[in-house]
């Protein structure tokens, strides 16, 4: 029985490699384009939401009666904040926690959250809203043991947020180490990470889902 010799085409092999490489480079290019588009979206959204805060605060200053104050629309501000946070988390996952663009956008995001914190607290106080406002202090620094607990705490809070629309969560990564975060840390006497401040009261260390639920129900 004769053996059939298969002809090997060097040209076809090289062409296959080039096509594979081209597809890979196109994939990288598309991925980079999408990432940069997300960064630009965040930049524009943060600018818009900060402008919205300024307009909102100006309305609050000029309001003459309590009913008009309580009728102000703040829901869009909160939805925008949540969307920015979700995309930032994805960018952090794709680009890395030490990426300079990600770090810069997180600093602005902290400003957004601190502005929103003041608005939420003011509306709750004046309009009898029954919200649970949670400040979540954590670290994103991989070199610290607290980072793993911080990540777990984040999952717990995400789950609770999706179960209860009355829960408003503001997250602060203290590894960013900015003056405004340091001031917030000192105001809330945060010495351990993760830590939660729930309706103005501090709870240090990791708290499981049932633990947080019990705190909220007090």
Write the layout of secondary structure elements.
Elements: H1 10-62, H2 66-70, H3 75-95, H4 100-127, E1 132-138, H5 146-163, E2 167-173, H6 179-187, E3 195-198, E4 201-204, H7 209-217
Tell me, briefly, the overall form. globular
Mean pLDDT: 76
Poorly predicted segments: 1-8
Tell me the series of helices and strands, N- to C-terminal: HHHHEHEHEEH
**Main sheet summary:** 4 strands, mixed
Work out the oligomeric state of the chains in this entry: single chain
Strand order of the largest sheet: 2-1-3-4
Rg from alpha-carbon coordinates = 24 Å
Structural class of the secondary structure composition? alpha+beta
Distance between the termini: 87 Å
Number of strands: 4
Summarize the amount of helix as a percent range: 55-70%
Number of discrete domains: 2
The fraction of residues in strands falls at 5-15%
Keywords:
218 residues; alpha+beta; Glutaredoxin; 2 domains; four-stranded mixed sheet; 7 helices; 4 strands; globular; disordered N terminus
Task: Describe the protein in words.
The chain has 2 domains: 30-129; 130-218, Glutaredoxin (3-Layer(aba) Sandwich). With 218 residues, it is α+β, with helices and mostly antiparallel strands. It has a 4-stranded mixed beta sheet, sandwiched between helices. Mean pLDDT is 76; it is low at 1-8. It has 7 helices and 4 strands, in the order H-H-H-H-E-H-E-H-E-E-H. It is globular, with a radius of gyration of 24 Å. The N and C termini lie far apart (87 Å). Helix content is 66%, strand content 10%. Helix 1 (10-62) packs antiparallel against helix 3 and helix 3 packs antiparallel against helix 4 (100-127).
